[in-house]
Structures are given as C-alpha cells and as structure tokens.
C-alpha cells in the first residue's frame, strides 16, 4: 500500500486534490473518517443548508407573495419531516457523486481516522477492524474546519446547537437565538424564520457580516429587520441556562454594562469555525501551526516537514469550499511539476439569504485604508426590468475601479440571485479587466446581469437606465 499521494480528508479540497492528482498520473489514496465523502460541506454544511434555504424560501414566497402574482394557493402547510427528507436526498445524491468520481479515477479509499505517524506514513484507524498503515511520497492535510465553541457554553445539538444541529431540528422553534451575525448564523436564522421562528441575532461586534462592504451590510440589516429579524449588536452572551420553559440566555453589552436576559427554545451558536487538526499527529512529526491554529505553509502548500502539505480550511485564506477546491488543484499541479496558483484576493464570497449577498475583491474601507484612489459605480435592482418582473427589487450592485487605470478592484452585490451574477466580475478581475471592458460587454435583455453592466457604466457616470 504505497502511493504517490495520500490525502487525509475528502471534503471539497481533499477529493478535488485527489482527483486532479490522479488525472496527472499519480497513484492516489484518500483517508476519510466519515462513512461518506464530501466533508462538512456536503454532509452538514453548504449543501444541506442550501437545500433548506431553497425550500424555506419557496414556502415563504408561497405564503406571502404568490397572491401578488395572481397565484392563489391558500396558506401553505409545512411538513418539516418531508422538507428534511428533501435535504437528505440532496446530501445522498452529492456524496454518492463524490464516491463515484473517486472510483472513476481509480483512487483507493481508506475509511477511518488518519494520523501521520512518520514522514511518508499515515496510520488509519477504522471504526471497526484493524489499523492499517499507508505509505506515500506526499501526504496532504485536507481535514477542513470544525465549529468554534463559545467559552463556557455546552453544545448538546438539541437545544443549544451548532450549524450541524441547526440543520437537524425536528420541529420549528418558537423562539430562536442566533449567536453570531456572520454568514452561517444569518443563513440558518433565515431558514427557521421563514418556517415560523421568532429569530433574534446576538452579535459581539456593532455590525453584522464583519469584513464585508459597510454599505451592503447596512442595506442587508435593514432588509433583514423588515423580514422579521431582531438584532442585538455590540452584545455578548455570557451564559445559557436550561429551564423548564426552555433556555435562559444571559447577555451584557460588549463594552461593559448591566446584564440582561433573553428566552429561547433553541440557541444556535454560529461564531465561526476553527481549523481541524485534532488527532493528526502533527506534533509527532513536527508540523508547525500558526497562532490561530492553522497549519503553516510556504505559500505553495508545503509545510515545514518534507512531503507533508496542507490545503483548504486548515491553512490561511478564506474558509470556503471553492477556495479549498482551487487549493487542491493547485497543489496537485505543483506536485506534477506545473505552475499551480490560487489568488486569494479573487475568491468570491456569497451569503445565501434572500436577498443574497455576493462579494469579490476589495471593499471601499480597504481601499481607503490602503490609500488607493477609486471610482464607484452603483446600480439598483429597482431599476432593472427582470428584477421588477420577479418582484425582487431590493438591493444594488457596486463596482469599485481604480481612479487612474479603471481596473476593477472590487465588486459588491446584494439582491436576488447575485450569487450567480458575481462570476462574470470574477473572470473580468482575473484578467485585470476594467470597468469600461465590462460596460462594453453586451448583456442579454431582460436579465438581472444587466444591472452589472449598468453599475460598470455608472463608474464613468453614464448609466442608461438610472
């Protein structure tokens, strides 16, 4: 059992790395502790959450907006058990697809917990059966990330849940407290709000969605409040107590002050994620971690130990599945003697609420801090014909371009379907394109993407439809 490459973890980064390495002629094996492939993303993260987001969105629209388009269906009835079956069917289809791809590419699979016991050696401990040792010229750590815990708070995945438990509730909570106003908290909060929960979001900072463009964030918060979210910003959770009625949550101002209490049936803890390196034997072989618990690499995915590499959430960069996938491809190509590279400045990010939020590149705050002169072009969906037809006119598109060269430096969107619209700007920016290039590209009418073109035209103060 000797291989060119052994990948520990078959999440988006791991399985993609393994497949690309196999395509390049390497003999590859993967080690996976779950019974199914796909990691957090496919099993308890991106994919199941999107299944519930889509289903709950349709449920909400049927109950509140169908009549405005001449569709009379009466009050929709929720069958949560069947909605969860839909979610599981989507998971099964996706993880089954990954299993097929690994077989198709002749990649050997070892199920069990992987541990690096020496240079070039991985020990695999299955749930049942004997421990095996797999040898390889190269070992890739692709173990992803785990839920970050709130100090002093026990997550039981029943009443106090992480994102994992938040996708598995067997009834709609009357009241839900979401701790953390980041992407995961807002997405899962959206699901349960649409299905009938009274949702309050508690955030330590004085804003939601830290790191995103402040203008987009302000608009998002206004829209979410209109939908029924309650926000308590600049607030920290200091304790959660189980009572006969449910949960009592103690909070206090982040800046200090008097404590107050909230009541809930379920608390969702969504304060972020941490690199997952537990039990990998990194201490044994001397793999160095940084002060945030991430595996240190040389910028080309190589650790300080020869033959050991790392990709995805366990290293620097945004904790996103598509970033991990590109890491995996780049590493496989580097190992094959090619020039693999990932530009972390051009990783798009999407928040799958309604409206969606999609971003790429620099924010206005970052450009100001760096002293970069720039022009801004904005266009609202309220002036877009397709958005009006679909009754999703909230939001806008903002294009930031260098004042001198007109090169697009950042794009920030909020609106229905913008998670699909962001990618033409991703391609543009990958080729150092200008706002003028985008403005002169013909866009089909009527489409939401016309708003992207109009925002590019607005950089030069010449939008047509505003």
Give helix % range. 25-40%
What's the main sheet like?
A: 7 strands, mixed
Structure classification: alpha/beta
Shape: globular
Low-confidence stretches: none
Distance between the termini: 65 Å
The average pLDDT value, as a whole number, equals 97
Which percent band covers the strand fraction?
A: 15-25%
Number of strands: 22
The radius of gyration over CA amounts to 24 Å
How many separate helices? 14
Oligomer category:
single chain
Task: Describe the structure in your own words.
- The model has no long low-confidence stretch (mean pLDDT 97).
- With 466 residues, the protein is of the alpha/beta class.
- The protein has helices at residues 12-23, 39-44, 46-64, 80-104, 163-166, 183-194, 214-227, 282-285, 321-335, 364-370, 385-390, 418-430, 435-439, 450-459, and strands at residues 2-8, 28-32, 108-111, 113-118, 121-125, 132-141, 145-147, 160-161, 175-179, 198-202, 230-232, 235-242, 247-253, 260-264, 266-269, 273-275, 308-310, 349-351, 356-361, 374-380, 396-402, 408-415.
- The strands form 5 sheets. Strands 1, 2, 3, 4, 5, 6 and 17 form a 7-stranded mixed beta sheet that branches. It has a 5-stranded parallel beta sheet with strand order 8-15-9-10-11.
- It is 33% helix and 25% strand.
- The relative contact order is 0.12.
């Amino acid at each position: 059992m000797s291989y060119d490459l052994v990948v520990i973890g078959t999440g988006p980064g791991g399985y993609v790395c393994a497949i690309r390495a196999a395509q390049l002629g390497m003999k590859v094996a993967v080690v996976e502790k779950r019974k199914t492939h796909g990691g957090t993303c496919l099993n308890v993260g991106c994919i199941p959450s999107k299944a519930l987001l889509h289903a709950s969105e349709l449920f909400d629209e049927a109950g509140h907006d169908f009549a405005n388009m001449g569709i009379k269906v009466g009050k929709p009835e929720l069958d949560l058990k069947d909605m969860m079956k839909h979610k599981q069917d989507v998971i099964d289809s996706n993880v089954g697809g990954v299993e097929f791809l690994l077989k198709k590419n002749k990649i050997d699979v070892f199920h069990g917990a992987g541990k690096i016991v020496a240079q070039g050696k991985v020990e695999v401990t299955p749930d049942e059966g004997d421990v095996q040792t797999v040898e390889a010229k190269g070992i890739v750590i692709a173990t992803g990330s785990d839920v970050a815990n709130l100090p002093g708070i026990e997550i039981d995945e029943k009443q106090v849940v992480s994102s994992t438990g938040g996708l598995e509730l067997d009834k709609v909570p009357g009241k839900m407290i979401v701790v953390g106003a980041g992407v995961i908290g807002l997405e899962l909060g959206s699901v349960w709000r649409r299905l009938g929960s009274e949702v309050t979001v508690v955030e330590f900072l004085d804003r939601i969605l830290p790191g995103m463009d402040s203008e987009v964030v302000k608009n998002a918060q206004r829209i979410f409040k209109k939908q029924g979210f309650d926000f308590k910003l600049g607030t920290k959770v200091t304790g959660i107590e189980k009572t006969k009625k449910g949960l009592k949550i103690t909070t206090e101002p982040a800046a200090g002050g008097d404590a107050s209490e909230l009541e809930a049936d379920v608390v969702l803890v969504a304060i972020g994620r941490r690199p997952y390196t537990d039990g990998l034997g990194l201490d044994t072989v001397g793999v160095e971690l940084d002060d945030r618990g991430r595996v240190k690499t040389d910028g080309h995915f190589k650790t300080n130990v020869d033959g050991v590499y790392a990709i995805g959430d366990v290293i620097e960069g945004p904790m996103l599945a598509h970033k991990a996938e590109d890491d995996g491809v780049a590493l496989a190509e580097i190992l094959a003697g090619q020039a693999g590279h990932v530009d972390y400045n051009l990783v798009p990010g999407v928040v799958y609420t309604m409206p969606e939020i999609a971003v790429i590149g620099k924010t206005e705050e970052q450009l100001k801090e760096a002293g970069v002169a720039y022009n801004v072009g904005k266009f609202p969906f309220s002036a877009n014909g397709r958005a009006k037809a679909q009754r999703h006119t909230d939001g806008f598109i903002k294009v930031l371009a260098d004042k001198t060269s007109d090169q697009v430096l950042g794009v920030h969107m909020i609106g229905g379907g913008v998670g699909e619209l962001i990618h033409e700007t991703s391609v543009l920016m990958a080729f150092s394109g200008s706002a003028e290039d985008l403005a002169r590209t013909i866009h089909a009418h009527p489409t939401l993407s016309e708003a992207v073109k109009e925002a590019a035209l607005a950089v030069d103060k010449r939008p047509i439809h505003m």
